[in-house]
Design goal:
Layout: E1 3-10, E2 18-25, E3 30-34, H1 41-46, E4 56-61, E5 64-65, H2 71-77, E6 78-81, H3 93-98, H4 113-125, H5 141-154, E7 159-163, H6 171-183, E8 187-191, H7 195-201, E9 204-209, E10 212-217, H8 219-222, H9 225-232, E11 234-240, E12 247-253
Parallel strand pairs: 3-8, 3-9, 6-7, 7-8
Antiparallel strand pairs: 1-2, 1-4, 4-5, 9-10, 11-12
């Protein structure tokens, strides 16, 4: 599904955290939004899944205005893993993932065999089958993160919006999670703090500084020494991994 931000401004105070964001994301792209803390990454993502209404501009899913569409329709099309702490810690992991199927049900429908198979597959794909029957309250932060990703996958969305999806994950699960997301064939919009992971898995990088899009394009065009200095106040280089040739980021303390 194509996603378009057209002059979007949004925020919680009189001074918007995002200013006039204009961006088109093609169907099937994996877009990583990068920027320092407080730059507006999460604010931009929230305008997509109806957690924060834009003050100006339009967010389009395909040709439909997100904020003019029915909430249930957006929930069917957009899977979300957000930063806000989830409720329902008395749920088991499997019950939490089942919630991803409810946007597809009628008011009085119950989950059927097909829904349960989708739930089981989502748990398996995120490596969470072994913890499926444990309460969320007993899970580590990384385990809970994998369950919440499974819930988003269970929606079978056309667009995945992921706010720091590798938060709390160890390196192996960071890589397996982003590799899985990249393999799904859906449009992905993910806020990532780790620049090396963004370079390795995203097809497009969007760098945000103080609520404004500073650069957008393929990793090789965005992850330049000038952007590292201007946006992140570090020296950096984009290099090729000597093993698989994929892009990697090297960062150094800014000098001079």
């Amino acid at each position: 599904m194509k996603l378009v931000f057209d002059g979007v401004a949004a925020g919680y105070t009189e001074l918007p955290a995002v200013h006039h964001a204009t961006l088109t994301i093609a169907q099937g792209e994996f877009v990583a939004v990068i920027g320092p803390n407080g730059s507006g990454k999460s604010t931009l993502l929230k305008t997509v899944y109806r957690a924060l209404r834009p003050r100006a501009g339009t967010v389009l899913l395909g040709d439909e205005d997100v904020w003019a569409a029915r909430h249930r329709d957006v929930a069917r099309r957009v899977g979300v893993l957000g930063q806000d702490p989830p409720g329902g810690y008395d749920f088991t992991a499997r019950e939490a993932v089942r919630l991803g199927r409810y946007p597809h049900l009628g008011a009085f429908d119950r989950l059927g065999a097909t829904d349960e198979a989708i739930v089981a597959q989502a748990l398996e794909r995120t490596g969470a089958t072994g913890i499926a029957d444990r309460p969320l309250s007993t899970l580590s932060g990384g385990e809970r993160q994998r369950v919440l990703l499974a819930r988003a996958l269970a929606q079978r969305p056309e667009l995945l919006v992921l706010d720091e999806p590798t938060n709390h994950l160890d390196p192996a699960h960071q890589m397996s999670t982003l590799s899985l997301v990249a393999s799904l064939g859906v449009t992905v919009l993910a806020a990532l703090h780790t620049l090396d992971l963004a370079a390795r898995y995203a097809t497009t990088i969007v760098a945000i500084k103080a609520g404004t899009i500073a650069a957008a394009g393929p990793p090789a065009e965005v992850l330049t020494p000038a952007v590292f200095r201007d946006v992140f106040a570090v020296d950096g280089s984009l290099v090729s991994d000597p093993v698989d040739g994929r892009p990697r980021v090297l960062l150094r303390e800014l000098r001079g």
